[in-house]
UniProtKB/TrEMBL annotation:
<keyword id="KW-0489">Methyltransferase</keyword>
<keyword id="KW-0808">Transferase</keyword>
<dbReference type="GO" id="GO:0008168">
    <property type="term" value="F:methyltransferase activity"/>
</dbReference>
<feature type="domain" description="Methyltransferase type 11">
    <location>
        <begin position="14"/>
        <end position="99"/>
    </location>
</feature>
<protein>
    <submittedName>
        <fullName>Class I SAM-dependent methyltransferase</fullName>
        <ecNumber>2.1.1.-</ecNumber>
    </submittedName>
</protein>
<dbReference type="InterPro" id="IPR029063">
    <property type="entry name" value="SAM-dependent_MTases_sf"/>
</dbReference>
<dbReference type="Pfam" id="PF08241">
    <property type="entry name" value="Methyltransf_11"/>
</dbReference>
<dbReference type="GO" id="GO:0032259">
    <property type="term" value="P:methylation"/>
</dbReference>
<dbReference type="InterPro" id="IPR013216">
    <property type="entry name" value="Methyltransf_11"/>
</dbReference>
């Protein structure tokens, strides 16, 4: 995330589809003022139990309960992979973002897709491609001034040596299991 967004300490961030709050807490630990949003009341109860100091809001990605430009940054880490209309969700995220939106997706062009698609926790997930994710942004208004992307996790379950080698690979290889796309509203803002 840091390479694609370069967040500044104190910026506000909305984590759409926060689930257990794992990434929400990591964003908070990086100095961001975060809000987690999820449609599942049981998941929000769980997150409130572990991080009562953070704001947790019930809502859906396709109808965010916030005014336009409410957050500096808006993220969705794999949550769009579980909704039927990612284009509508991205448009809503764009609406409430002042500076940038980052979506993290499961990459259809990855080894993980070959191993896990349709099984276990991935049974109901949609696996997307970079081209599809880029096409979702074509209807955004205003159009993004800048778009960046990258992938990580090229060899799932590779062990310690694999994790070291992973850091040496360029992020612009299109075969990582996790695909991230960042969309920026103001090209003059450092990215």
């Amino acid at each position: 995330m840091h390479r694609l967004l370069q967040p500044q300490s104190g910026e506000t961030l909305l984590d759409v589809g926060c689930g257990t709050g794992h990434f929400t807490r990591r964003f908070a630990g990086a100095g961001l003022a975060v809000t987690g949003l999820d449609p599942d009341p049981a998941m929000l109860d769980y997150t409130r139990h572990w991080s009562p100091e953070l704001p947790w809001v019930r809502g859906t990605a396709i109808s965010l309960p916030f005014a336009d430009h409410s957050f500096d940054l808006v993220t969705a880490v794999t949550s769009l992979c579980f909704i039927d209309n990612p284009e509508a969700a991205l448009a809503e995220m764009w609406r409430v973002a002042r500076r940038a939106v980052l979506v993290g997706l499961l990459n259809r062009r990855s080894l993980l897709h070959r191993r896990k698609a349709g099984r276990g926790g991935y049974a109901n997930a949609r696996w997307d491609s970079l081209g599809e994710a880029r096409s979702w942004s074509s209807a955004l208004s205003p159009a993004p001034d800048a778009t960046r992307w990258g992938t990580v996790i090229f060899s799932p379950n590779a062990g310690p040596v694999g994790r070291v080698l992973e850091r040496m690979l360029p992020a612009h290889l299109p075969f990582g299991a996790f695909l991230a796309l960042s969309l920026h509203k103001d090209a003059s803002t450092p990215i």
